[in-house]
Design goal:
By secondary structure, the protein is α+β, with helices and mostly antiparallel strands. The protein is built from six helices and ten strands. The chain starts with a strand and ends in a 6-residue tail after the last helix. Bound molecules: iron/sulfur cluster (SF4) (2 copies) and FE2/S2 (inorganic) cluster.
């Protein structure tokens, strides 16, 4: 496969011609903040945390959904990007109810870690404090909509890794939510195989194993990675 040459943060880098900027950065050892990206699952550019600056382009571009081009001059860590990343994180915290101290994912949450890494120590926007339900109908798993950042990782994993198509997104704007089947309690979703892949993929405390209490929700990503890798390398057929 042909290779493109580009510059990332002043460093000459080469990347596969169909690579995304995020893949080129990862390959070059440059870490970008991400929330909706999950290795092995297609990207949708939902969280806008991986935005980068490209010389000659006055828009910020999501690294996970933008392909590399020959001669691109990419900047991943500028004052403008740091400003937008903080702002995006603050809005995520203000939109729903992220009370970390009592969250099942406290200490193991990607949103929380990213906020710390980006120096987000307070929220300048009014907390919306919406009233969202917690679905504890499923025997093994629960869904707390208060912690959901609508990254859609669970939806993509449910459709494209498990092939069940149970998780979906419904509604718009502030009413947007992740639903099971036709918006019924999780326990009544006939298509759900109870595989738990959605739970393993969630970056926050929105999806959890029932019985987990504050700080106890540690995800076993290695299981998900194993499934994704085996699928990509067609190890099922061996
Ligand atoms: S447990 Fe599996 S099938 Fe059920 S919603 Fe989650 S990913 Fe889909
Ligand atoms: S439940 Fe978790 S994985 Fe699904 S959209 Fe919400 S935060 Fe993302
Ligand atoms: S990781 Fe790129 S937009 Fe979320």
């Amino acid at each position: 496969m042909a290779v493109k040459t580009l510059t990332i943060d002043g460093r000459p880098v080469s990347a596969q011609e169909d690579a995304t900027i995020l893949q080129a950065c990862t390959e070059a050892g440059i870490k970008l903040p991400t929330l909706c990206h999950l290795d092995g699952v297609y990207d949708v550019g939902a969280c806008r945390l991986c935005l980068v600056e490209v010389t000659g382009n006055n828009k910020l571009l999501p690294a996970c959904t933008t392909k590399v081009r020959e001669g691109m001059d990419i900047h991943t860590d500028t004052p403008k990007l740091r400003h937008y990343r903080k702002l995006t994180l603050e809005l995520l915290f203000a939109e729903r109810n992220h009370t970390c101290a009592v969250c099942v994912s406290n200490g193991h949450c990607e949103l929380q870690s990213l906020a710390a890494d980006c120096g987000m120590d307070h929220v300048r926007y009014e907390y919306q404090s919406p009233r969202w339900p917690v679905d504890q109908s499923h025997a093994l798993y629960g869904m707390d909509h208060n912690r959901c950042i609508l990254c859609t990782r669970c939806v993509r994993v449910c459709w494209h890794i498990e092939g069940a198509g149970t998780k979906n997104v419904a509604g718009r704007g502030a009413k947007c939510e992740v639903i099971t089947d036709l918006k019924q309690p999780w326990a009544d979703a006939d298509t759900c195989t109870s595989c738990g892949k959605c739970v393993m993929s969630c970056p926050t405390g929105a999806l959890f194993y029932r019985g987990a209490s504050a700080g106890e929700m540690v995800r076993d990503r290695s299981r998900l990675e194993f499934i994704v890798n085996a699928r990509e390398k067609q190890q099922w057929n061996a």
